[in-house]
Design brief:
This protein has about 375 residues and is mostly helical. It contains 16 helices and two strands. It has two domains: about 90 residues, no CATH class; about 220 residues, no CATH class.
Length: about 375
């Protein structure tokens, strides 16, 4: 049984609408599969265009106390639910079939537009020159002895800053942003981002229950250029996580790069509470054998145990597994071959890179980098 003219108008189904949707999807595929080259992206997109866009647009989201991304996500979810309900409530099987096809095609077209927007607004940064290529980095420096040396440095840093970190009152989002900003700017400048950076303070989200149940500590919204932190984070985690998300906001899409930026931003900070957060953040990514031998004081060990216990109590294991499998697939689709394992790869950069007397990584001379 076919659809009447009224049914077609009700569900927005027509040959013209279908043709437009298909044309949008085809154009999006062509755009998404175009690769300008890492040199051009590093030099022009990540080096000039993206910083200018972020610096111009981020203050609009920063001007309001809530996550603007929530305002965009909630109507989108509501419209999707409304479309599904209309399909389900169609008066007969034929109407449901055609309505369903129309909804799927329209949602696919909208998704294609969002995907192009996402790539143009931020995700092209996945294709910039990797830090291992830009820095004076050698895999030969990554030895058991050097990993042990890093472990000793981490333990020393944690033990040294523990008391001062616990004596520091917990900072608000704006205060924390102000505290880490000078060190952060030095790090990203050394890594190739000499352009402007807005650096908006972190926000909370109405979707925090999902973040907590999947152990997502924060995220960067590439459409609104704002950063969200999970509200259960301890004061000792927040500096490292904010610096990580700021790394993404500054145009370093790779999780390896974001963690490397967070580690250097925090451990180079003059503030002992921020340094404690940096050493703590690194400790969670040390190889299992090294982490087990970490010579830390009882107070530091208690902090680490409390953080791990908090995650264990909040996560939903099935949802956690689904989320991280999906995110791993997303990363691989964007050229990150090792998926979620890329989070821990920054440890190799810490060990295998050469650093100057200021604790900043030395760079290689690269054409286009």
């Amino acid at each position: 049984m076919g659809l009447s003219t009224i049914d077609r108008r009700t569900f927005g189904w027509s040959r013209r609408a279908a043709a437009i949707d298909l044309a949008v999807i085809a154009a999006a595929i062509l755009i998404l599969y175009a690769h300008p080259g890492a040199g051009w992206i590093e030099r022009t997109y990540s080096g000039r265009w993206y910083p200018a866009i972020e610096h111009a647009l981020a203050p609009f989201a920063a001007a309001v106390p809530f996550a603007v991304g929530d305002l965009l996500a909630i109507p989108l979810l509501a419209i999707t639910a409304w479309a599904i309900v209309r399909v389900v409530r169609a008066r007969n099987r034929g109407a449901r079939l055609f309505a369903g096809l129309g909804v799927i095609l329209r949602l696919a077209a909208v998704g294609a537009i969002v995907a192009v927007w996402f790539r143009a607004a931020w995700a092209l940064n996945y294709e910039r020159i990797p830090l291992a290529t830009k820095l004076d980095f050698q895999t030969g420096r990554i030895t058991a002895a050097e990993l042990e040396r890093l472990t000793t440095r981490v333990a020393y840093g944690l033990n040294l800053t523990y008391t001062a970190a616990h004596a520091t009152p917990e900072r608000s989002g704006p205060e924390l942003a102000t505290t880490i900003e000078p060190s952060f700017r030095e790090v990203i400048a050394r890594l190739g981002n000499a352009g402007p950076f807005a650096g908006s303070p972190p926000k909370a989200t109405v979707f925090n229950p999902y973040l907590a149940s999947t152990a997502i500590t924060g995220y960067t919204n590439p459409f609104t250029y704002e950063v969200v932190l999970e509200r259960h984070l301890s004061a000792f985690e927040r500096p490292f996580v904010l610096a990580h998300e700021w790394g993404h906001l500054a145009g370093f899409a790779s999780e390896t790069a974001a963690n490397f930026i967070a580690a250097l931003t925090c451990t180079r900070s003059p503030d002992p509470a921020v340094r404690y957060s940096g050493w703590l953040g690194i400790s969670f990514y040390l190889p299992a054998g090294e982490a087990a031998r970490l010579p830390i004081d009882a107070g530091v060990a208690a902090d680490i145990a409390a953080i791990r216990r908090g995650y264990a109590e909040r996560i939903d294991r099935r949802l956690f597994a689904l989320q991280w499998q999906s995110y791993g697939n997303y990363l691989k689709a964007n050229g990150v071959a090792n998926g979620t394992a890329s989070y821990g790869a920054f440890v190799d950069l810490l060990v295998g890179s050469a650093f100057d007397e200021r604790g900043l990584p030395k760079r290689r001379a690269l054409a286009g980098g």
